[in-house]
Each structure stands twice: as C-alpha cells, then as structure tokens.
Amino acid sequence: MRLLVTGGAGFIGSNFVTLILSNYPGYEVTVLDAFTYAANRRNLEGIVHQISLLEGNICDARLVDEVVSQVDAVVHFAAESHNDNSIKNPDIFFNTNVTGTLNIAKSCVQHDVRLHHISTDEVYGDLPIDSDDEFSLTTPYNPSSPYSASKAASDHLVRAWVRTFGLRATISNCSNNYGPNQHFEKLIPATIRRVMMGEKPKVYGSGLNVRDWIHVDDHSHGVMLALTNGKLGESYLFGARNRLSNLEVVSRILDIMGKPADHIDFVPDRPGHDAKYAIDPSFAEEDLSWRPAHTNLLENLPDLVAHYTSTTDGY
C-alpha cells in the first residue's frame, strides 16, 4: 500500500505515521506537510529515513494532483485547527480546510485513490453542560466557530464528492486529542508550559466547559481501521467517553506540579465558546471493532507532565 498522509508532521499526523510504520511494514508512506508553525520536523526525526517527506501546501492543486497520482490511499489530516486563531484570521482556515480538501478530493477522484478525511466533533456545535446527550451520526451540524464551520464545510464537500463523483472515501470525527508532541497552544501543554515558566495557567470563563478526551494513539488506531475496514461513504465517531471540564484538567496538572488549586488566571471567555462535547462512539466500536485503550486522562496526566517538562524544543 502506498499511503499519502497530509499534515503528517503535526501532532496527530506524526503519531499516526509512527503507528503505521510500527504495525504495517508493507506500507510505503509519503508525508506532505506545509510546515506551518503547528508542524515540527522533530516529530518525524526517528522515522524520517522510513518515509518520503515532501514540503508543500494542499492549496497547491498541481502539487496535490502530482502526489496523489502516485499513491493508493490518502489520509487527510492537514488542517488549521486552533479556534482562537480562526477567530482572528478566518480566511486561512477556509483556504486550507476547504480549498485544500477540495484539491485532495478532486485528485482522488481523478486517480481513483481511496481517501480518509479527518474531522472534528466541533462540527456539531455543543451540548448543555448538564445534559446527558451525546453527538451521534444523526446529530445535525451546528458549528460555532470559523474553525468548526470550515471543517463542517469540508465534511459536506467530501460527502458530495462521494455521491456525485464516486469518490471512495470515509470520514471520522474525533474528540479532543491528547498525548506527546502536541503544540503548546493546546490546553494541556499550554498549562504545563506556563507553570514551568512561573506563570499561572489561563482558563477561559469559569473553566466549566467540558471536553471529551481521547489519546492520540487510540485515535490513530481508529483511523487505520476506518481506512482498511470502513464502509465507503460512511462516517465514524471516535471518542473515549472521558469527559472532563477544563478546570478539572488544569487543577490536576497543578496538583502534579506542586501548585495550589487557585494558581489559575481566569480570563474572559472567547466568543462562541462551546459548552460541552460528548461523542457516542458506539458505531465505530460495533462496525470496526475499535476500542480505546486509554480511558482515564487524569491517570495519564503524570506521564504527560513528565514528557512536556523534559522537552525544550517548543513542544
């Protein structure tokens, strides 16, 4: 199998590439990455001799078509993903997440290449804090931010290309990932880094917004199962039923790092901040026989703190 991984130098993409090389020795992997601020060559330094690494942007239609024509399948991680940045500069999010996905989809149709498109649970909007509801495959899309709106548009694009042009594709929507090598703009590494620098970690609003956390390795396993065993045209939701408020996560990190519970800088909430995410992953569990191996973020946090406090290169 000749596999193209877009965004393969980023947090989730690089963990996925590492998984492929460790478990699927017959795969030839090409990574296409624009190496924006969110990517890091060090994520691939231990495996770079095992892959073909191309620096380029998925918005370059000619480059995308050339690369896609040489592979059997594409796993499409490449995206702008930070909500705060999408509020400040939405244009780049729609350019990368929509136009870039359009280029991928068109080339996959042109060369009859299998596609798996990576998306987010944020396309569904949010749930009430006190609700037991979960996002399912029948939940209507209701994005709140420019980021989630751009990902919703890319999901709809892929589905339209499946129906109209015969694109051989699957989609997965995943909850908040955690694990090693995540960019410091995200909650867990940002909190650890600020404490290391002698600062108080910043928490939006009251900190009661709830997220559904999944380890990046569990997400990667799910993506691989969807690529190899998923039904064409189907969508899969990956979540570990591990729902915690931002305040719970930050408070546990403070405890591990020997700081008092009130060592927090509560800042004004960002516009359109979603209250709660909760994924129902039962279809993925049933159809793909997928199960998350890591189901308790709070138990995993000591190892993550140790990882990030020993890392000095910006991750």
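The above is record 1. Record 2 follows with the same two-line structure.
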Amino acid sequence: MKASAAALANNFLGHSPTWFKYTILAFLAINPLVFELHPFVAGWLLIAEFIFTLAMALKCYPLQPGGLLALEAIALGMSSPHMVFEEVLNNFEVILLLMFMVAGIYFMKNLLLFVFTKILIGIRSKPLLAFLFCFVAAFLSAFLDALTVTAVLIAVAVGFYSVYHKFASGKRDEHEHDHNQDEQIHDYHREDLDQFRAFLRSLIMHGAVGTALGGVCTLVGEPQNLLIADQAGWHFMQFFHEVSPVSMPVLACGLATSVALEFLRWFGYGARLPKRVAEVLAEYDAKESAKRSIGEKVELWVQALVALLLVLGLAFHIAAVGLVGLMVIVLLTAFNGITDEHQIGHAFQEALPFTALLVVFFAVVAVIHDQHLFSPITHWVLSLDESAQAPMLFVANGLLSMISDNVFVATVYINEVKTALDAGTISREHFDALAVAINTGTNLPSVATPNGQAAFLFLLTSALAPLIRLSYGRMVFMALPYTLVLGGVGLLAVIVAF
C-alpha cells in the first residue's frame, strides 16, 4: 500500500518540483472551504491560483495544474459545463486557427529556413542583420504563427551552431558529433565559439521580439487578436487599420531599437560574427545549395506560391482564418508529395497542447462570468474620465500579461468591455478604442518575460537555449530595452490616439 501511495505521489505532475506539487494540492484543498464561506472570494482565489500555474510554466506545463483547478471549479458549481461549452463555441474560430493555421505553416518551414539562412549568410553588417531578422520575423508573424517563426529561427541557429561546433571539434562532415558537449573543442576555437554564441543570442532575441512587433498588427498575429476581432466584428484589413495608430509607431521604434542596441552594444547585444565562423558557414551553405535537387527547388517554389495565396486569402477574408490554414495544409501536402498520415500528424503536435490549454482558459473565463468577478474592476475603469480608460486598460493588460498568458488576460478584458457595450454603458467608438488598448496592452509589454510571450517561452525551453547560454534571467535582461520602448511608445500612442 505504501509503495502504491509513493508511486502515485511520484506520478502526480511528473517531474515537477515537490514544492509545486504540494502547492497545487493545497490549492485544491482550500478552494472548497473558501467557496462555502464566500463564493466571490473563492473566484478571485481561483484566478490567482491559475495565474500562478501560468507563471510557473517552466516548472510544469499549465494544462495539468490549471486543468485540475478548472475541473474543481466546475465540480463546485462556480460555473457549469454548459457555460464552458458556450465559451468554447463563441471562440471556435480561434481554436480553428490554432488547429489548422499552425499546422499549415509547419509545411512551409523549408521556405522559411531558406529565407533566414540567406539573410544570415549574405549580410555582414551586424546592425543591418539585426534589423532584417527583426523585420522579417515581424512581417512573417503578421501573417503566420509566431511560434512557427520562432521554431524556424531556432532551427536555423541550431543548424549553424552544430556546423561550427563540429568544425571546432576537429570533426569532418561524415563524422558523428554531439554539439551539446564541449570537451573536444580545440582551445584556439573556444573564443570564437563563445563569441558565436553571443552573436546567435542577440540575433534570436531580435527575431523573437520581431514576432511580437508583427504579431500585434494583424488579426492572425496572435490568438488573442482573433478573440478581440471576433468580439469587435473586425475583418483582417479593418483590424490592421484600427490598431495601426499604436502598432505602426511601435513597429518603427522597435526596429530602430534593434539597430541602436547593436551599435551601442548594451544589454548583451553587439557581438559580431567571427571571421572564421563566417567562412565555415558560407562553405557549408554552398555545399547544401549545390546538393539541392530539382524536386527540392520545386518544393520551395510551391511553398512560396502557397504563401502568397495565404496572404491574399487573409487580406480579402475569403474564409475563416482556420479554414485558410486548412487550405494551406491541403495544397502543400498535395503538391509536395506528403501523403503519409504520420508525416501529416507531426504538424499538429506543436499546436494541440496549447489548444487544450485554451479550452481550460475558457473554463476559467466561464467562472469569471458566472461569479461576476471583474464587474467591480470594469465599473471602476468605466467610471474614470473617458480619456483615461484606454491608457488604464493598456497598463492593466500589460502588467498582467508580463506574469500570465496574454490570451487569458485579453479574453477576460474584452469580454467585460463587450458586456459594457451591449448594456449601452459605452459607445461603439469608445469600445473600439478600448479593444485596441487591450490588444496592444497584451501584446507589447508582455515581452518583458517568457511568461508573457509564448514565443519567448518556446525559445527558453528549446534545445537552442542551453547551447547559446540563454537563461531566464539573461532573457529578461536582454528584453528590458525592448520592454521599455514597446511599452512606453505603445502607452504614449494610446494616449495620443484615444
């Protein structure tokens, strides 16, 4: 019996720290007692606990602990399965986006790898290279999925790191090599390797911030954008137009920041690509290009054509975003010879865990609605002078998104503001201004931490992070100048525009 109990305790939340497991169990034990005494307080306690699970995403993926809290809340009667279903149904377009668009872009990775590889090899100026990485990541993230763009950046960096690491270890192309081990690195290559790590660190951070800069601009840039657009009734071009008074100044200042940081060499930026490393990478790229078959070249052309169709499909709103993603899957798999079920299945692995987590978000949102938890805050914000409401929502969403998930924060606030619109408390014009403040507030200041941006968290937990010595603290430090610029310029733009 003791052995079974020990095994159960060991299996509970897997490899999470013991203190984290006990904390979640304490939450589950306390919640029913608090709910019996005061349901409203229990609701706010649930929100605090859920945000805690999001903030601890590096200890345990939030689906499990957050899901347990949501299940308990439904069982206690804080909301109902029907209300959860209604929330999911109301946001079904977002679920379609995550299911099909992310999977569709998976089949476009070779084209994206080709683009970033040519940029990295072809540009010698580090400030210009930083600008292009940031700009291209922003442009792609405005039409594609930020996680996929980040995944491509990671793949490019890991690929080139492993090429030089093998060379620095004295290995030939045909030799097996583990680029995680530095024991065989020749002493006269160690300085170049350390500088190469710093070079890749800065480029990857520029690119990751670029995904946030582009992600705020369009309806498909981030999942919360589609949630907001759905509540506001905005199509693709209208969304772009509504947020542009904030997103365009922020984009310009963000790109300028990428160049300034490389010139000033502040906050861990400024490392240049060592000459010998550049020569090794150029030789490798030339060999790979020479080996590329006609069939592989045709695949790239097909991917480029489908990418154009994707942009046009989104711009002219020919169908729901998720259905456009399904079109991309069908075209790319059909014309590039991907017909095996298991090959196709790999494309869905990246998005489905977050899709499941999103449904848990909606369960917590259902509790918020049924318990009227945010009504006092909404009433307070709407009691302020009208000119102060949008900046206040920008700041509130920004601060919460730094420690929590921005999709969850945006879902809560846009629903509350939509309720105020439906009740006639605010005008349609003012609702649009508040919707822009919520969108930009959740997208821009959230670059402060990996908790706020899914792309940052994905990067931090990737195989690349330990290779280039990118820790949580170093990421926060390198993101700080961007946080100040994006948050400050965004707030100023909201004040001026609304």
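The mean pLDDT is 85.
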